[in-house]
Amino acid sequence: MVIEGKDKPFKASAPQENRPPPVARISKIASLKKFPDTANALDLLHNVAKAVAPIIHEHRFDVGLLCEMDPKNPCLLGLNVNRGQKILIRLRPSHDKTSFYPMGDLIGTFLHELCHNVHGPHNPAFYNLLNSLKTQFETRSYKIQCFSAENRLGSSTRDKWLSAQRVRAARLKNLDSGVIKSESRRLGGSVVSVGDRRAAALEAAERRRRHNQWCPEAVAGDIPSGENLQIQDCIDLTGEDGHFQDTHVPPKIEVIDLTGD
């Protein structure tokens, strides 16, 4: 869906100690001041961005503000405003604001929202990109775990390699949770006929249609204002060309994603 309205710049409410950026293409990171553990939320957002940093760099995704959100709709997990001007992520379950979602869930939401920097609707091109990003993320994590296992003294390389396989499978399962799960694919098994593939494609298309139709709507207050945020400027805002690119931001707000469960 699309929400239009006047946008206001985000300004930090108080000076803070800057910290090294998780990735050069993210300008600011912010958590909600209404919660007592804003520092923990900032750390969590930094860790999410750091985990996805190679993908952000490779695909040249620009994010002006990576921000915590607390929407009224409990099914709303993320928003992408103006194709990356702001990406907002729900960090806390609606039933327990003192806890945080697992890292795998937050990374899955962030990857989903990054895809909306390129594709607005949940169409085949969107899901192809999302599946590609998820595969890239898990492949990188898998290689790092295998390298660590092979270089650990006093351990069995084979056992560690198998353990890395199991961790990768579990992470893929977490990233495939919720609405993304409907797009998961199983490799191997029996040969699938043309008719079965056509039926599966039609079923997937129908799921995407229902997803777009039933996607929860954002309401007033879901996008927090600057005075409600604890904003932290990153030290290095430069990209490969030496400047943070923000030329794609239009004058109006266009919310191009409402990710639900």
UniProtKB/TrEMBL annotation:
Q: Which GO terms describe its cellular component?
A: nucleus
Superkingdom of the source species: Eukaryota
Q: Which GO terms describe its molecular function?
A: metallopeptidase activity
Boundaries of every WLM domain copy: 17-210
**Species annotation:** Metschnikowia bicuspidata
Biased composition annotated in UniProt, kind: Basic and acidic residues = 1-10
Q: Which GO terms describe its biological process?
A: DNA repair
Q: What name does the UniProt record give this protein?
A: WLM-domain-containing protein
